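Postdoc handover notes: sequence design on the structure in folder B. Input tokens:
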């Protein structure tokens, strides 16, 4: 693709500044070269994309998704050949990209090969930061061994085992996950909603075990740790251990919120999975063992996310798509606004602040000179209607790494 000049755009740059009207974006190869007044440059060597007054935003970032998953249904693990999971992932990644998500932090099951294939542009896919395999205690949220004696885990050479107990085993398993290509480590610090063997409020791993994970990740060039944590004790244990981001945070209280602010930790509320799972439970679409919990936690989750927000906790966009259907990612912004954010703030939570959470803010998250050309064109002003971003047809163009990967303007 030759150099591109995007003309006649209204730019919402992801930094929280006022929109820039009548501006052009100059893209050379895959880099944003400059932002200039409209019609101030005339060069026949550029490919011209006329935005016709549309709104241009940075490519969005989902800091919690599972591109390899389609519901985590045990019967799928039993009945589907391994290769089918990978072919399903192709569709999942394309749906994610078409929704305006150009970067994801995969929260489990995407291995080094999936990331390498995406980086080589073998298929349409968002840019990925991977944890490969979450760590879990025996009987914890990522232990799929059932009381029947059957083990429902997905297993192949690219996925290390997830189960570890005791500080020594935790260190070894962390090293194995790092060896397999993890760029961030994920731990299951509490039970989960769709777990067969535990409940969301139950703490898992001791503080010393969690500290061991943080230390091992830090030895590997300062990598960060993300913690699946619903219950209050698990959240606080994670923060005491120095964990970088809390995923879900359902039973967070004021003390935990204050700890997060003090530790400069991030919160990823994943409203999408909480709200969509509630609907699924009410319609009888979730396994019986998880329906009651899915309905009950939705109310306390909303209240506690509002508490965290008003306490000054850093909150970024993440959805847990993969547990629920892919492509719903930007619905999260509507829920962030319901929590209390203004639309501009919610957009930042899904762009620049999300990039900071991932440690990729120098190259992603905003429309600024020198950053990668990840851009999303939308027809409707999202500052007036944040819900419009969740409508896939409103996303008229997606550019990732300087290349057009979606274009439905006609």
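Designed sequence:
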């Amino acid at each position: 693709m030759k150099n591109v000049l995007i003309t006649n755009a209204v730019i919402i740059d992801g930094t929280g500044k006022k929109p820039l009207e009548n501006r052009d974006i100059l893209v050379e190869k895959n880099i944003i070269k400059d932002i200039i007044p409209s019609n101030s440059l005339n060069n026949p060597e550029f490919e011209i994309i006329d935005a016709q007054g549309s709104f241009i935003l940075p490519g969005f970032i989902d800091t919690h998704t599972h591109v390899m998953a389609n519901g985590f249904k045990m019967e799928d693990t039993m009945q589907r050949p391994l290769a089918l999971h990978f072919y399903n992932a192709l569709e999942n990644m394309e749906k994610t990209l078409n929704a305006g998500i150009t970067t994801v932090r995969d929260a489990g099951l995407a291995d080094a090969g999936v990331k390498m294939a995406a980086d080589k542009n073998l298929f349409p896919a968002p840019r990925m930061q991977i944890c490969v395999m979450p760590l879990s205690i025996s009987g914890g949220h990522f232990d799929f061994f059932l009381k029947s004696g059957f083990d429902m885990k997905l297993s192949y050479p690219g996925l290390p085992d997830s189960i570890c107990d005791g500080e020594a085993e935790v260190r070894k398993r962390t090293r194995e996950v790092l060896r397999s290509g993890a760029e961030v480590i994920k731990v299951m610090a509490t039970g989960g909603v769709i777990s067969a063997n535990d409940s969301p409020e139950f703490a898992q791993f001791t503080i010393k075990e969690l500290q061991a994970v943080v230390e091992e990740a830090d030895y590997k060039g300062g990598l960060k740790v993300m913690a699946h944590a619903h219950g209050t004790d698990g959240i606080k244990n994670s923060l005491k251990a120095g964990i970088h981001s809390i995923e879900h945070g359902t039973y967070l209280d004021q003390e935990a919120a204050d700890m997060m602010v003090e530790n400069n930790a991030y919160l990823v509320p994943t409203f999408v999975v909480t709200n969509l799972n509630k609907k699924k439970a009410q319609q009888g679409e979730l396994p019986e063992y998880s329906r009651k919990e899915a309905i009950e936690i939705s109310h306390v989750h909303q209240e506690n996310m509002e508490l965290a927000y008003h306490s000054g906790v850093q909150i970024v966009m993440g959805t847990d798509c993969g547990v629920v259907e892919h492509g719903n990612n930007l619905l999260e912004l509507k829920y962030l606004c319901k929590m209390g954010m203004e639309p501009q703030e919610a957009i930042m939570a899904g762009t620049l602040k999300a990039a900071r959470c991932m440690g990729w803010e120098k190259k992603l998250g905003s429309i600024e000179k020198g950053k990668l050309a990840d851009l999303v064109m939308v027809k409707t002003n999202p500052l007036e209607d944040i819900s419009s971003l969740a409508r896939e047809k409103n996303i008229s163009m997606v550019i990732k790494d300087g290349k057009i990967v979606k274009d439905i303007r006609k």
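Context for whoever picks this up: The mean pLDDT is 92. Don't rerun without checking with the PI first.
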